[in-house]
Amino acid sequence: MLELVARKEASRFMLWLTPALAVVLTMLSGLALFALLGKDPFEAVRVIFVEPLLDPFSRTELLVKGAPLVLIAIGLSFGFRAGIWNIGAEGQFTIGALTAGAVALAFWNVEGIWLLPLMALAGAAGGAAWAMIPAWLRIRFNANEILVSLMLVYVAELLLSAMVGGPLRDPDGFNFPESRMFHDSATLPIIIEGSRAHVGALAALGAVVIAYVLLHRHLFGFEVRLFGQAPRAARFAGFREARLVAACLGLSGALAGLAGMFEASGPVGQLVPALPSGYGFTAIIVAFLGRLHPVGILLAGAVMALTYIGGETAQMAMNLPAAAINVFQGMLLFFLLGIDVLVNYRIRLRRAL
Amino acid sequence: MSERSANGQALFEAKSLRKVFPGVVANDDVSFAVGAGEVHALLGENGAGKSTLVKMIYGLLRPDGGEMRLRGAPYAPARPGEARAAGIGMVFQHFSLFEALTVAENVALGMNDAPRARALDARIREVSEAYGLPLDPGRRVGELSVGERQRIEIVRALLQAPRLLIMDEPTSVLTPSEAETLFGTLRTLAEEGVSILYISHKLEEIRALCSAATILRGGKVSGRCDPRAETARSLAEMMIGRALAAPKATDWKPGAARLSVEKLTLPSAEPFGVTLRSLDLTLRAGDVLGVAGVAGNGQDELVAALSGETRTRPEAIRLGGAPIGGLGPEARRALGLSVAPEERLGHAAAPDMSLSENTILTARGRAGLASRGFLRKAAAEGFANRIVTEFGVRTAGVSHAARSLSGGNLQKFVVGREILQKPDVLIAAQPTWGVDAGAAETIRGAIRSLAAGGAAVMVISQDLDELMEISTLLSVISEGRLSFPVPVADITVEQIALLMGGGARAEADADA
Amino acid sequence: MDLSALNPADLAFSLIVAATPLLFAALGELVVEKSGVLNLGVEGMMILGAIGGFATAHGSGSLALAALAGAGAGALLAALFALMTQYLMSNQVATGLALTLFGLGVASLVGQGYAGQTLQVSARLDIPGLTDIPVIGRLLFGHDPLVYLSLVATALVWWFLNRSRAGLILRAVGENHEAAHAIGYPVRLVRVSAILFGGAMAGLGGAYLAVVQTPLWVEGMTAGRGWIALAIVVFAAWRPWRALLGAYVFGGVTIVQLNLQALGVAIESQYLSMAPYLVTILVLVVISADRARARLDAPACLGKPFYASS
Known about the structure:
The complex is a heterotrimer of chains A (353), B (512) and C (310). By secondary structure, chain A is an all-alpha fold. The longest helix of chain A has 28 residues, at 241-268. Chain A has one domain: ABC transporter involved in vitamin B12 uptake, BtuC. In chain A, helix 7 packs across helix 8 and helix 8 packs across helix 9. Chain A is globular and about 75 Å long. In chain A, 72% of the residues lie in helices and 3% in strands. A two-stranded antiparallel sheet of chain A has the order 1-2. Chain B is built from 16 helices and 23 strands. Chain B has helices at 50-57, 80-85, 103-109, 117-130, 146-158, 176-191, 203-209, 232-240, 299-307, 329-334, 355-363, 377-390, 407-419, 437-452, 464-470, 493-511, and strands spanning 12-21, 24-34, 39-43, 65-70, 73-75, 88-91, 164-168, 195-200, 212-217, 220-225, 257-266, 276-284, 288-292, 317-319, 322-323, 337-340, 370-371, 374-375, 425-429, 456-460, 473-478, 481-482, 486-487. In chain B, the strands form five sheets. In chain B, strands 13, 16, 19, 20, 21, 22 and 23 form a seven-stranded mixed beta sheet that branches. In chain B, strand 17 and strand 18 (374-375) form a beta hairpin. The termini of chain B are far apart. Helices cover 72% and strands 0% of the residues of chain C. The longest helix of chain C is centred in the N-terminal third of the chain and has 27 residues, at 8-34. The termini of chain C are far apart. Classes of the chains: A mainly alpha (353), B alpha/beta (512), C mainly alpha (310). Chains A and C meet through helix 6, helix 11 and helix 13 of A and helix 3, helix 4, helix 10, helix 12 and helix 13 of C.
């Protein structure tokens, strides 16, 4: 019989091996899933994982999809490490897009290089403010931030829908619930000619570097890690929980809001009700798959973006259902959490007595 | 050798029991026998293998070798339910109680076939009164005192009419007078023919109560004796395997007041916590104030109030005259007040962080391990290495996680981390709890020399012998009240015993 | 606005229908949490139950079979959670989130062929004489059997937790798993059973939603109800009858806002649709504000992993 034996210390080797193992296991299960759906499994894997890498345009699309995922996941990783569960990034993303979009529309006929920075500021502030609601309710009233932040996703989406159907609706849009298209000053510069890859990718890269320094070289990262591992020790060390809750939620909200601004002023170019497309939830998977480590998140974001793009190709080329990719991503998280056991436990063969 | 009952057959026998955990042989070739109606002591230091042994008897662990016999028949319980059905009852050291449930529900959980609620209430009343252990079946356990909680465990065991009752360190949570009552109950039980396996490292009570003893050291039987025929000293030497050194007297000249607490009253934030009531004390340079008392009488709350984890009125606590009651832990540390809490893993240290990261917890200010918010990793590593060298912490290196250290070594690290910051005042809670003799000596020595160097120290401990050895002043905490500190030279163990039984309250009430 | 268009008996009737899925899911989660496990995957188990129930009802036309299929689907997903958290020691919060994401994905994959399809399954009671009594007749005697099952389940869960020995053991495991283990109770087995029960109840609630309340398959149709059920458990302070109250309050909020929308109140429909979510937040705030009370009510081991070292 198999038996788990607790390790004296977490295995660093396993810490890095298990995500790779999870990806391999998910691939294998994916083969089974695709076969079950009546598709040629190997063809599906080739279309999803290999083809996007061979096609130049798809390669740049990796940056388009990966940037918001990495940006949001970086923000979430701090809270998750500290045991502060913001699962409403999707809502903060939505509000960020909305506030940034509102700024863009307010200056719809004004040109200026100051507009994009102002929008970024508005997006980050909007996301942060939305995240401060669960933070404040937890600090002041002890309300569970998981449930509050999640509830606010629905509220944010309804708010966006009300706004684009009301005050922000395109006056020349035949009553369609959409805003005007943003003009050039409010549209993100493209970093690779002929693609949709925008400066958001650079911002995500910058976030990775800053997060790495914060987490491993700065007292704030120490505080975050300490709270997650031993909250009592953190209070003993003199760190204040309320401040940390506000900082972690505020940070993740700001980054999610920024991602929302990038999405609105980048690939989409206007405000539409369907703008929030699940990045905020997929980023949770990215954060865990990346081990809550900035560099890991960068790699995980790339893998996840690949499944998005490959999934879209497979949808068109093989008529693979869109939801299959969601199942695939869910499986990845399960496998990761499941084999994580190897980090803290050894498996031992127990002889029968 | 242990005594046998009248017909010469032992009630319970263990033969060559062996239990191996990864990396440790917890029990090796352990044999002993308990006769009917015998009170048999199982004696040994922390880590000698006593707990492992009784867990095997109670069906919580399975032996890797050897066998057990009950009334001559082979006995191999697969789970505690089988042990109880065979007539074995157990009273745990760390209670297996449920605070949110009632007394009756707790008792029912410990029985194999509990009667219906009303009948059970009646039986609890009946048995608890018959043995002098009064209990109200309808009360929530969380509202009861530690002594009352132990009664639940005993009553629970007695309701199943056990033939062998295992008591794991029962008096470690009792006041001396409560312990006296317990001994009465145990003697009555023995007269009724119940055998008792009594686990302890307190020598005097074993001499008073037990008629046979098996002594464990390093997982092996290191001796058997009739404790009534031994002295406490000879028992101790069998237990630790070497001759005892006499305690050293200390020179003591108190200096200026370092820390003073004035009329500190603090309701507990925890649902079942203790309220601190009008505490007063003054620590002067050179003082080592020992705070005795049974666990759960407000020690945790006092430490939290002094460390700054709980804030108080600013004037309630003064450090060198300045009011600090409103400050947090970091600000207090900066002013020279250090604390080494009781719980090593999860409170004093973060289990999964390396030793070098663990220094940043409390020493980032005074030892300069962070500057402008950035960590100085090399400095932290250097500081951790200094602790390891100066306090003889056994570890493969300061990059290893705190939880990989043994309890004693981690305790040396925690105390060392505070002492090396040269605090003006050190508060140490249970500094040698669960620590082997050698490490305990290191820690006590370090505390003494810190005080000798002009700091004021408070040691909170349940171990009276330890407090008598290292303190200059002694005080007792009981139900959130602190008795007036008395010089150790002027106090007798009997006086302390009286205070631990609630004397502190009588005294405080007289003051008011 | 014409308030006379609202019929109180109809309102009450639809309130009960709207509350029933929440009640099933909340009762299940309540038992899970009483055993010391926090399963945040209610939403995922619910939507899997919804598609399981919908597909079965679509094929068979039987409400009973649909309910069973829904419960089975929920329990199946819960089994995965049990395996992960109880045997592979994974983090309960993260695993619960994974359960929700995975459940939503699987449900929309399975539900592709059913998108936009409707059902005709009616199993309302119709007792001649009783059901025909004006106003209260239909309210008391005119529901489908699952509504009555949800009420019976509330009573049974109460009885189980407070009067049965198995329930006492379950509470003990949730209060102090170390002690329960020391006395000899199988902590893991108790928890796995509770998790499976919770999954079945969430699945049942989902099936009710998709087969009776809105007999139409829409992707993501649970729309946060699983999360609201989690909030109801907190609101109920882990007491079954208060969970009933909580579910009916939320059912009421849902019905009132839908009716206001139908009446064409001069508020954008989006703002009215926010009501259930905002009420959830409000309720959480009110209930949690008394920290001491909240600590006392919550099972002491909620969300803590148990690893038997000996």
